[in-house]
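[audit] Reproducing an earlier prediction to check determinism. Same input, same settings, fresh worker. If the tokens differ from the archived copy the diff job will pick it up downstream; this log only records the rerun itself.
[audit] input (118 residues):
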Amino acid sequence: MNNAQIEIDADWNEVPDMTPSLQEKKAVLLRLIEAIDKLSSNEDWQTIKELLFDEQVEKLEKQLLNEAKAIELLSPKIYRLQGNLEWARRFDLYKLAETYKAELNQVTKKLNENANSS
């Protein structure tokens, strides 16, 4: 095949406009952050977190530490405990909101870059 015969489109280096999808993602992130903030200030959520999730995190951390100190390390059990601990920590709404805020900052930067390049 002779590649010299292939015609190159003039638009091959044109980057698609990502502004609409970035704006949509920004709106979703703002709604998520707002909902998390409202939920975290709810007294019922504080009770559930305190009685259920905080205790679970402590238990999983102790189990993981005990497994790490064991003479024979069982990788599958350690990985399972790490996964369960990561799952339990997700219910820290402050950390969850911070993650979404960082993502929102990245989206905002991209939107500003797109606006400046236009």
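[audit] rerun output stored. Observation attached for the diff report: DSSP finds four helices and no strands in the chain.
[audit] end
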